[in-house]
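To: structure subgroup
Subject: Chain for Friday's discussion

All,

I'm putting the inputs and outputs inline so they're searchable in the archive.
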Amino acid sequence: MPSINPQDRKALQKSVAVRTVAFYTIFSGLWIFTSDTILAWFFSDPVQLTQAQTFKGWFFVAVTSILFYLYLNYCHHMQRSNEERFEKEQDKMQQDFHDRFKQLNTLFDSMSAIVYVADLENYELLYVNQFAAEVFGQDWQGLKCYHYLQEGIGQQCDFCTNSQLIENGESGDPITWEFLNTKTKRWYECFDKAIRWTDGRLVRLEIALDVTERKDLERIKENLLSSMSHEMRTPLTAISGFAELLINETEIPEAQRRHIEIIHREAEKLNELINKFLDIRRLKIDRTRIDYESLKIYGRLKKAQESCRDCKEHHKIQIECQADLQVHGHRRELTQVIVLLLENACRYSPEGGKISLIAQTAAQNISIRVIDQGIGIPQHELEAIFDPFHMLDTGNHRSTSGVGLGLYVTKEIVTLHGGQIQVESVPGQGSTFTILLPRQVNNENSVNQNSLDTS
């Protein structure tokens, strides 16, 4: 049976001592005061008074001894009862902890994932689930995590996340990352979190899921899309070019000319779709950004406005931008972002209306807003619209075309520029897409849409 906590024992002893002293002080004071007063009433002779006081003293000793014995016996009984209660509670807590640990151990052993716990300072393994033991071996006690899980690594791994798990001496936010294991040669998606171990110290818990098949499928998909996109561009270029030549032929009847225009228009749409696939692959593979330059934002807005020829027929695009407002970025990519947002605004504003392009400077960044008066976006879809191939459901049928890649490409480009993209929307009233880019130049002068700055 576990012993009582020393602090609890000390508190009990102190409580008993205080109560004993208080009881003795009160009882003695009352005895001396009352007994002397009563004896003075009955005995006037000094000799008789002295004998009576002597007898009173011995009587006091006998009575207090009996009372002390009874009281200490009572205190001892209460202390023992408290100790037994504390011990039972401690036993119950340890049993509950053991049961919970056993349940978690059963849960982790049933998972088809690698689960282990390692010390944050010396990297010693403290726990390994059955699945990990089957993959890396049953003999893990006393080993370092990098010795057990990796191949040919004799010290802390370069990709170790320990330093990122602690914030101000406490457990920080969890970290999710992927890596190729050097021993199994398989890809794992890891979830790392600093937790309190049974002895109170902070340790690293890692749950690693094997995602090798997913990575292989992603690679196959990227290669397939890349090959198909490149192979399809050649015939599409020919179709589009010959269709454009036929449109300009004066001898072709009007009915056939309309058919050729449809062929040309649809070929251009398919070519744009292929370009989006290629843009996604390029943005995923090439993360280095060496071709950035200082760009005047108004020039990018004006260029995007001119590129959206189809929008001008039904929508009025208004630009509001501060003069000489600049950003450090890629000329073509930033223009592409604004064009994609404008096309999205036009697509989901079927009744026309004004579309505003507003660029402003703030303390930490530059904001570019695209505001439309369209159908809006339901609240439950605001997070998903930036996912690849996500299409906004406008009802029983879709009146808009596309495959849901525009906003995904937009977010990728903005992220590569160190910025963020946000959206606010009210169904039936329109949407506002806001791009936040790192600030470069601050100038409070503003220009209107007729400004001559078109760089």
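Points worth raising on Friday:
The CA atoms of residues 51 and 71 lie 30 Å apart.
Residues 218-284 form a domain with the Helix Hairpins fold (CATH 1.10.287).

D.
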